[in-house]
């Protein structure tokens, strides 16, 4: 039997993990856009707390080593990079509260927080790279939405770290005000500990009442699971 000829291209999913770099920023610069900001958010999926967005313009000469998707880093490494990013880059942070999330929806609240973070940069961005599928409406500059952007662009990765660390710190502070829910441990996600706290004490002002299982129907509170992002 004649042996099979191996394919001349790699398998569709047999690829190395994405590692963020500066290529998208340099491409925008070559097209005449500078400076370039990366933007990302943290906290779309939790049952409580704000969604936090960050915008970051990195200094190409002082990019911190080890920038990556915040979910791929330990809490200690995120904190270390957070300090380095603030010391070397132009950074802006904005958030949308649980009240705003309930009044609109999580997508609109996230994009609005991202828009405000971008528009509040001390150095106006000429171009913006955002994580995900959407560029926030209402910007003063063009932008590009990048799927898995925090694993492809160091600017977006830096924004994801700043947003994540900021939100985690906010939820740690919230724990001191509302200790019955364990916010310091789960930062608002729908863990068993969190759901037990809601069951015992009811929701507090930080809870997103439009999210299941907090959202009420004509038959009372809904009980199906929230699919966290």
UniProtKB/TrEMBL annotation:
It catalyses: Endonucleolytic cleavage to 5'-phosphomonoester. A divalent metal cation binds at residues 40-41, 131. Its EC number is 3.1.26.4. GO terms for molecular function: manganese ion binding; RNA binding; RNA-DNA hybrid ribonuclease activity. Residues 34-223 form the RNase H type-2 domain. Its cofactor is Mn(2+); Mg(2+). PANTHER family: RIBONUCLEASE H2 SUBUNIT A, RIBONUCLEASE HII. This is Ribonuclease HII.
């Amino acid at each position: 039997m004649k042996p099979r000829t191996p394919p001349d291209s790699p398998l569709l999913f047999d690829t190395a993990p994405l590692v963020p770099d500066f290529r998208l920023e340099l491409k925008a610069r070559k097209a005449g856009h500078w400076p370039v900001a990366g933007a990302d958010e943290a906290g779309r999926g939790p049952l409580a707390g704000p969604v936090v967005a960050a915008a970051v313009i990195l200094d190409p000469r002082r990019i911190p080593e080890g920038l990556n998707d915040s979910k791929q880093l330990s809490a200690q490494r995120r904190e270390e990079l957070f300090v380095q990013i603030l010391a070397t880059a132009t950074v802006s942070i904005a958030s949308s509260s649980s009240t705003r999330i309930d009044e609109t929806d999580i997508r609109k609240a996230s994009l609005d927080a991202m828009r405000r973070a971008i528009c509040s940069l001390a150095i106006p961005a000429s171009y913006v790279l955002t994580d995900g599928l959407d560029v926030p409406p209402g910007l003063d500059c063009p932008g590009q939405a990048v799927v898995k952007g925090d694993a492809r662009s160091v600017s977006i990765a830096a924004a994801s770290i700043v947003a994540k660390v900021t939100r985690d710190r906010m939820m740690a502070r919230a724990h001191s005000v509302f200790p019955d829910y364990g916010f310091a441990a789960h930062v608002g996600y729908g863990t068993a500990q969190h759901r037990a706290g809601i069951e015992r004490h009811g929701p507090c002002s930080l809870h997103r009442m439009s999210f299941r299982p907090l959202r009420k129907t004509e038959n009372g509170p809904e009980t199906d699971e929230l699919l966290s992002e």
